[in-house]
């Protein structure tokens, strides 16, 4: 819940262009310190004056934002799994980690469990017989 | 359970057995009635297992309903010996028995003895030891046996193919018509999702009363097997799945090559009127009159012709068959060609003293009849009065002659027999043709046949019929043999099952079975033909069902007058047209055309239930009886 005063204050501090973008994506105006940027260009902010649970947020680089676009290490920081951001953590990526997978929901690559239901009808196994 | 209170009567009165008198005051909903019924209920439940949760009748059980209404809320049952237990009987692959649940109402015994004519079912023992059964280990081999499932008020007799598959409240009910024979029994299809779970009869006093045959009731699992799902095009010795576009363009190309009467269409037993009229229109546009029905004689002009409607229908009507006092059946086995008609005839035999004479193969009809002879000579004996049955026929007030469809469609003597029957009808015209009574009948056995003849789906002339076919269109034609399909012809099969017809085809088009089409026995397959006509360059002038139906009524007005029996005029005149002097008998036996009652069409041939029945009752072998795992 935002007040008019806070909204106006944040618009002034963040600048009208980024405030407009924030209103379109988050539905709120926010201002904080830029902590870092991940490989795809998502920007991560922190403002400890915000109410509890809203101190850390991300501004997506993509025009079609999705939480799965956040890199796993930044996700740790965003969800307060760790205190220090990945830029200060000195993470050594392991080979077996591989690349993070995007969210396939709604696409052809989405996971569908295999069907355990028996088919409701059986098709004819075509067979040709010779005519006389 | 029928106890009621009658004023000034000291005790509750059993309403089912008490004579009714003027001025009687009957009360059905008083504390006395409730108390009396609660008492009876307690006795019924004393020996009835409380296994409703695992009983197939649960949810549609009369005893369950009664006990909900009148039963006590607690039991006083504390017999140390436990409840009565009865061994289950083996009634065959259709009826499952849990005899412990039986409350000995003996409805099944009465049905089997009075309606179905299966006298083997009865009771043995007395009192608490009474049991329903067949005395010696035996299955009930009646083609009407499934009806005892509906009759049983409890779960003692339930359907074996349906066991443990569904509950009545989860089923969607669709009213429909049966197509396994030409009776057109009124049925109700119970479905869950896309699956038909069971088939039940609907009440129609004009047709099937409240019975249906076992084939109607249990062949539904055939709808799930051997289905055609995608268009198939033959390449060499195998079929390759194709798109509709490919299939239709292939057919259209071949259609344009063939010309005039070298295009032949054959309509099978399950073809609906809409698709037949669409196919006929399409072929006529291509200049072909070479239309045939799916029977050995189907490719020639039929012995009955299709000009006079009274020459190929059951003029006396199914319920009218009860009123006849003498029946002469020529070349038909009504028990297998239409069990519903046979139960009518049996009813008339039992209650009206109907006399029946049969010319044709001697078969068990479940009642007594005079077997006159096996071939057309017997008909001559009736004509010249040398057989005693001729006298009965002459003295009859309402005689009825039933000519089987086998005579017309299968027999070599069709024309001769019909000419003799016409002569016989001429001789007895005063009784045979009365006001409101036409005693001449042709008894069809295929659901589509009357419709086909109404539309005129027969070769118009010998010339059209004898043209050798280059392009053959099989519409649900599954009774054909390898000989009926010319080797060099291009064959299209349209139907719903991979049965006889599809084997010989060049292109197979999948269609819907009767349960999947629009309510009445009609519809979508006409659309395939419509699509084909456009690709072939001769567009038919109808796009949807209503316009196709209006064309149907143009061709034959009676086809869209639903639920009404159209009585044709000119019955006698039509029949006299069948009299021919130049035909000779070949002396062939008029044998039964239905050899295996349980497997007569693609649906019942694909059904495993029907396969079990024919194995048990036609071949006389044992069948495995264990509970099938919920079948696909």
Automatic annotation (TrEMBL), chain A:
Organism encoding this protein: Umbelopsis ramanniana AG
Subcellular location: Mitochondrion inner membrane
Keywords: Electron transport, Membrane, Mitochondrion, Mitochondrion inner membrane, Respiratory chain, Transport
Keyword Zinc: no
Family per similarity comment: Belongs to the complex I NDUFA12 subunit family.
Position of the signal peptide: none
Listed transmembrane segments: none
Stated name of the protein: NADH dehydrogenase [ubiquinone] 1 alpha subcomplex subunit
Lineage: Eukaryota, Fungi, Fungi incertae sedis, Mucoromycota, Mucoromycotina
Protein function: Accessory subunit of the mitochondrial membrane respiratory chain NADH dehydrogenase (Complex I), that is believed not to be involved in catalysis. Complex I functions in the transfer of electrons from NADH to the respiratory chain. The immediate electron acceptor for the enzyme is believed to be ubiquinone.
Any one cellular-component term (Gene Ontology): respiratory chain complex I
Membrane topology: Peripheral membrane protein
InterPro entries from the UniProt entry: NDUFA12
GO biological process, one term: response to oxidative stress
TrEMBL record, chain B:
Gene Ontology molecular function terms on file: 4 iron, 4 sulfur cluster binding; metal ion binding; NADH dehydrogenase (ubiquinone) activity; oxidoreductase activity, acting on NAD(P)H
Highest taxon in the source lineage: Eukaryota
Domain named 4Fe-4S His(Cys)3-ligated-type: residues: 32-71
Residue stretches making up the 4Fe-4S Mo/W bis-MGD-type domain: 171-227
InterPro entries: Mopterin_OxRdtase (IPR006656), Mopterin_OxRdtase_4Fe-4S_dom (IPR006963), NADH_UbQ_OxRdtase_75kDa_su_CS (IPR000283), NADH_UbQ_OxRdtase_ferredoxin (IPR054351), NADH_UbQ_OxRdtase_Gsu (IPR010228), NADH_UbQ_OxRdtase_Gsu_4Fe4S-bd (IPR019574), NDUFS1-like_C (IPR015405), Prok_molybdopt-oxidoreductase (IPR050123)
GO CC annotation terms, alphabetical: membrane
Pfam families per UniProt: Fer4_NDSU1, Fer4_Nqo3, Molybdopterin, NADH-G_4Fe-4S_3, NADH_dhqG_C
GO biological process: ATP synthesis coupled electron transport
SMART domains assigned to the protein according to its UniProt record, in alphabetical order: NADH-G_4Fe-4S_3 (SM00929)
Cofactor(s) needed for function: [2Fe-2S] cluster; [4Fe-4S] cluster
Family in the record: Belongs to the complex I 75 kDa subunit family.
Name of the molecule in the record: Uncharacterized protein
Organism: Umbelopsis ramanniana AG
